[in-house]
Design brief:
By secondary structure, the chain is α/β, with parallel strands linked by helices. Helix content is 37%, strand content 9%. Helix 2 links the parallel strand 1 and strand 2.
Length: 340
Amino acid sequence: MRRGRRIGLVAALWAAGVLGGCDDVQPGDLIGGGGQGAGQAGPEAPAGAPYPIVLCHGFFGFEDFAGVDFIQYFWGVRAHLQAEGEPAVYTPAVDPFDDSEVRGAQLLAHVERILAETGAAKVNLVGHSQGGLDARFVAHQRPDWVASVTTISTPHRGTPLADVALGLTDHGIVPDLLDAFVRLIGRPLWDAAGDDTSVTSAMRQLTTGGAADFNRAYPDQPGVAYYAIAGRTDWHGGGAPCRVDDSPAFITRWAHARDPADPAFWITEAALDGGLFDPIPNDGLVPVPSAQWGRFLGCIPADHLDQMGQLLGDLPGLANPFRHRVFYADLVGWLRSQGH
């Protein structure tokens, strides 16, 4: 691939990450001021299901973007879930730029605090993009703390876009310069960014080879339920890769909806789809086959940003009827129906 196209792909990846903000509460803050066993860390036995919901942000996610706390990664999802009767919903922030061993260890610490505060025995982890890998790391390390892991457009097998991007950046001094630049701009803008943050470490893990290494190191654990959902865009219906015999109703309700690709993904979606006559469904960053893991539930008509309500929520009057808040409420309701 020519250098100009590589630069375009890297720019698109950067834009997609930066535009997806997050209003993550301070680690451990309980949404709704209550919840089963809230604040109890005494001798009582840990509470069973329904377990708290932990929304795990992806690559470039943040808590307060430059101190602007109304910019949310999962746009309006917490408030909507609260209104639907889910008091214990958490959105902890982890390092936005590092690999899922670093981020996963940070998420694990948040989960420990959540369990202590709520008195719950376990949590349900819902991870978007790289957040799904972080969630899998937590479940591998402490399966006794995790009831379920649901991943949404997580690149379990990597994304070719990361391979292309590192073809541009992974040589000589460029990775060091890129990491130094990210740290320079990251600390004042992303609260969770640290002195050792490394965007190139994250990108290496998101390559096809890096993902394979992660999968070997952190296999699924017995006793944890693993679910996966993929996204499709550019008017794609999904076809065979999205077809699931036992897809739940909250996925099939969107079966006839089509998503026009956001301009931010025109280049990347075209690079992933494989051609005009047999396009590979993807969400602009992650191919559907890479997003499949555990029990695959199917595809939603949403690009990588639409899945969190970016930019700025669901805009009325557009061709796509998909509504991300409805989707997350339905997902949580379905997890409850599964005993989680």
